[in-house]
UniProtKB/TrEMBL annotation, chains A, B:
Keyword Hydrolase annotated: yes
Function: Catalyzes the hydrolytic dehalogenation of small (S)-2-haloalkanoic acids to yield the corresponding (R)-2-hydroxyalkanoic acids.
Family statement: Belongs to the HAD-like hydrolase superfamily. S-2-haloalkanoic acid dehalogenase family.
Record's keyword terms, sorted: Hydrolase
Protein species of origin: Massilia psychrophila
Catalysed reactions, as listed in the record: an (S)-2-haloacid + H2O = a (2R)-2-hydroxycarboxylate + a halide anion + H(+)
Catalytic activity, EC: 3.8.1.2
The protein, known as: (S)-2-haloacid dehalogenase
């Protein structure tokens, strides 16, 4: 077994499937669900980066709501307030990826402290975790709210170390987002990049320690 | 005529057409040019934001090259070094938008100092401007190189004011990039957003002073 003192996981896209909002989008706008979920996620990410760079932090729910409004306007879909609420709330009910639960069980059983580090607010993170019945898994839920800036700002990677109570070189950082995996690597963490789509790694001057196709293979690697 | 002491223009996408690299991309990879140019630009932008947030600045040519490598890998297109050079150099030979030259002539004739403020390096900006024969237009060419961080970091908007020698409220900021127009507005500039595609404005907590469909209509508004 690898000698990590803890494992921190990214939430959106890594443990939980951001494309799981496509279903309700498709109910609201038949035939548009997949395109809408994709643009919504793209703009959500962009707005976290832009807000952070502009030094104009707002919480993740606000960014998600703003990204939804842009997405509907860009796709020329009418968006009433009630519908905006229903759709945005879906981000509080994301489904875990199929490989998430079993991998976390195995790592937890091995006695490794597990945590989430996310751009989500405390409320969002807690809601997503509790809604999916995964509260048992995590020792720490770490939110961008505490530093008022989103990943990949260095403050987020400092926060993980502080909250885990161990030097970063002893904490495995797990993310399916190439840019997040890059930033964590550059910040000094050993990193496992979850490459579910078998795509290329972002070209940002970093290489992950290891890349696996899913969380199951990541757990295998940690436990072997 | 509006009483601006100067006008600063964004370069990529505002004065010059970033889609003008699609032609050479299509020669290199027939049928793939448009998709490639689009993803390349998207990743180029993302990498400027991510590099800035990670506090890992590299110059714009490096970001452009990195984004090209990711794009070809993602689209499963082989990329040899010679081809990478040819394609990346195309970003030094961008075509002005059809409405650029006439609008700049009219504003210049009215005696208004004109400038470019760009994420490009000094070398990139000078090359693009000279290659298109537009050197006559600009009093200042302002580069992110001088602050070692890209837009929309506040340092870029401070730099424009400093280089123009006037308080920002007297300088018109012109950009076709909604996120750049947003950041300039939030930073305190009067902003004209060039909305060539008649799309929605980014939802980042700002509104431009005015939006026009092209640079000609912008010049009309300034000169009226």
């Amino acid at each position: 077994m690898k000698n990590f003192r803890g494992i921190v996981f990214d939430l959106y896209g890594t443990l939980y499937n951001v494309q799981s909002v496509a279903g309700i989008c498709d109910q609201a706008y038949p035939g548009k669900g997949a395109a809408m979920a994709q643009l919504w996620r793209q703009k959500q990410l962009e707005y976290t980066w832009l807000r952070s760079l502009m030094e104009r932090y707002v919480n993740f729910e606000t960014v998600t709501d703003d990204a939804l409004r842009f997405t509907c306007a860009a796709l020329e879909l009418p968006l009433e307030e009630d519908m905006a609420r229903v759709l945005a709330d879906q981000y509080l009910r994301l489904e875990p990826h199929p490989d998430t639960t079993d991998a976390l069980h195995r790592l937890k059983d091995a006695g490794i402290p597990l945590a989430i580090i996310s751009n989500g607010s405390h409320k969002s993170i807690a809601h997503v975790v509790n809604h999916s019945g995964m509260g048992w898994a995590f020792d720490e839920l770490i939110s961008a709210e505490d530093v008022q800036v989103f990943k990949p700002h260095p403050k987020m990677y400092e926060l993980a170390e502080r909250r885990m109570g161990h030097a970063r070189e002893h904490i495995l950082y797990v993310s399916a987002n190439g840019w997040d995996a890059s930033a964590a690597s550059l910040a000094g963490y050993p990193v496992c990049w979850i490459n579910r789509n078998l795509g290329p790694f972002d070209v940002l001057g970093a290489t992950p320690m290891v890349a696996t196709e899913d969380l199951g293979a990541m757990a295998d690697w940690v436990l072997e």
